[in-house]
Predict the 3D structure of the following.
Amino acid sequence: MAVCVRQSRNSIINHVKAKMGLLGLTCLSSSMPSLNTDHRTLSAASLAKDLRNQNSVLENKPTLYRTRRFDSTKPHQRSGVQSNVASSQFLDFPGGKVAFTSEMRFISESPKERIPCYRVLDDDGQLIEGGINVSKEIAVKMYSDMATLQTMDTIFYDAQRQGRISFYLTTIGEEAINIASAAALTIDDFVVPQYREPGVLLWRGFTLQQFANQCFSNRGDDCRGRQMPVHYGSKKLNYLTVASTIASQLPHAVGVAYSLKMDGKDACAVTYFGDGGSSEGDFHAALNFAAVTEAPVLFICRNNGWAISTPTSDQFRSDGIVVRGEAYGVQSIRVDGNDTLALYSAVRAAREMAICEQRPILIEAMTYRVGHHSTSDDSTKYRPVDEIELWRSARDPITRFRKWIESNGWWSSEAESELRSNVRKQLLDAIQVAETTEKPPLVDMFTDVYDAVPSNLSEQEKWLRETIKIHPQDYPSDFPL
Amino acid sequence: MATIFQGLGGAGAAAAAALTKSFNSKKLLLPSSRRSLAERKASSLLVVRSDGSVNLNLGSSNGRARRVDQLITNAVATKADTSSASSASKPGHELLLFEALREGLEEEMDRDPHVCVMGEDVGHLGGSYKVSEGLAEKYGDLRVLDTPIAENSFTGMGIGAAVTGLRPIVEGMNMGFLLLAFNQISNICGMIHYTSGGQFHVPIVIRGPGGVGRQLGAEHSQRLESYFQSIPGIQMVACSTPYNAKGLMKAAIRSENPVILFEHVLLYNLKERIPDEEYICNLEEAEMVRPGEHVTILTYSRMRYHAMQAAKTLVNKGYDPEVIDIRSLKPFDLHMIGNSVKKTHRVLIVEECMRAGGIGASLIAAITENFHDYLDAPVVCLSSQDVPTPYAGTLEEWTIVQPAQIVRAVEQLCQKLQ
């Protein structure tokens, strides 16, 4: 943490200098020592507070140096100070100095080479280089949670096919993204998911029974039967309830980060989205906002190649999503999304940066959506079966990680079969319990629309109850009232 | 601010600020370049008092100042003579409606550190109608946040902040821009408390200026209350006087539900004396503006003043109209409305939104469903024409309901039974 403090103190100063630099004022150097002395014993919490206060610290100086926000309304003053710089070399305008060039050159639409992908485990699960700092406990938990997630997906998917639940969508192929990122976070980091991240909840302690209850929309459902299957949510585990709308959660994450920033918490906001979601307007605005407000938020993109039937080549023409970070002033990294350890270390590092430096980070995890988009989709209609099979078997992230933990002596085939059969049994039990649990009562249709039930809704409920009383045969018999 | 500039809101205030702070006024208006040229030119300085008198200081040599005068006079011709609207005690302080909003906002920000403001130009510029002026200097520009231009996204940001404990006030620079935020307001803001099983709630306030009258053109004269009224999970209120503006602002901030507060572009300069003591207005209550016996006139926002002006004429003709400012657009205060209907048996709705699918349409349905037996005549609804709001002053004036039409409607309604 000490390293982080030092870095971030410098970054505050560099930050302020960069913004104030154009004013090129010598008085600023006299204000710098005071910043240093005041913040010698920084903690992350006071850091955020000081970022708020830096405005007030500088406010005591004459209005010229107020805050960067006010700079842009004083261009005439700013240019007056630039006397020692040859004005013919730079264009000085709101937003900073820009050098001139007499060569007309269009910037290429894509880099010569694609941004490389960070990975530490090769296809056979062997470390490529260096040591990764992850304990046996965490590694084994990561593996078992990935295996659990995979088993849960298989069983619930089959349950949908059997008609026991109405809808489901799997995370097959993206288990590493789910679990490794969750493992790199703390419980205080607030997660704002898309819908393909139940693994994060699993890591944090959501039970298999809770998953089943939500899918079956029974009385035990945390959402009280009001959302579709896989739309999990848990305030206790700091995981915002999934909404079906694509990318609408990205601005929410910025708002959450803004809230954490105001409170000076040692936590960040984390949000997930897919390659398709990155086309939505909310993606662009959220990245932009996060950069401008310097909000500590991790944007994790699961680039799995497909948005239902739309391949990425029809979704965008940029080099994936990672290059967009620079466009908004956000640091970004591309990671092999099927490499558990690479993800773990990247998210870990990103989290540190986000919180200590109060900035957003964009992580693009390259992976493949092995399953169909959802149970309403048959992906063999628009993509080759052998492509799916390749990624399902040869590039399975779970198998790859298993090879690594086995090579460390932390796992064995006995442990494997024990885990799998154990989880399978638990899931089947959970489904059975969920299926037979009562459905939510009628009153839950009308509560929680507002904080208190208003009169028009009580009237509607009364009317409905009367109708049911008179015509019970038209309503399901297992409908609790 | 010097007293001569008291009557300013919007472009006028910008001009005033330009004089006092030696900014180049054109530069200051750059951030709000979204507003039409007409508005920027209409910088005549006006002091509009709620007792109907208008002090016109022709700051601009623009000939249309006279027409502006005519239009503004129509807005607030009648004295607000009810004790419920103004303070009971004579001491108190006078201020304009936008200042009342700001006072309410500031009091709540002082009271609760979780309250924050976000929107375009709310910080540095103090809001397009100066409602948040001075707040960024006082609370810092993180707590009064200037956002980039992406309504859906800063509304979403407000929602995200709200679910983690803050109480944001999101300002739409003009209510019409919030059409871009419809996804967030409808799909998440109104829903997340329900779909999360009560785990997450959204104590957000979404507010902004709307309505017709400043010749802002069709896109900037939207009345969003009609579009939002079906969204479950939100509440909607419309303020019309400095007193209820402050009270509703405070109540909305304290509410645990998402509240949309509708303000009107022409009402920001209304002057009224309000109490010094702290008070809030009930979000779900209507306001009795003028008790009467013959007909119930239901109205809200700016149309209240047209109704009151018509009431003056009607009284001279021997009618006794009861005027109720419904204030709460979702849900309706059917208690007060019902009592009134039971007394007068005739209802006239005067609203500024469009006829098709408007607030009046829902109100007619609610009244007919609940109080049919008490009605002596069908409910009459006067709304704006179902046309995009034209720019030309004369056309704009006649897209909305004028006092003469209200008088005529009441005469017809009452004569039906004679």
Summary: The radius of gyration of chain A is 26 Å. Chain A touches chain B through 58 residues (CB under 8 Å). The first strand of chain A starts at residue 90 and ends at 93. Strands of chain A lie at 90-93, 96-99, 190-192, 269-274, 297-303, 306-307, 310-311, 331-336, 361-366.
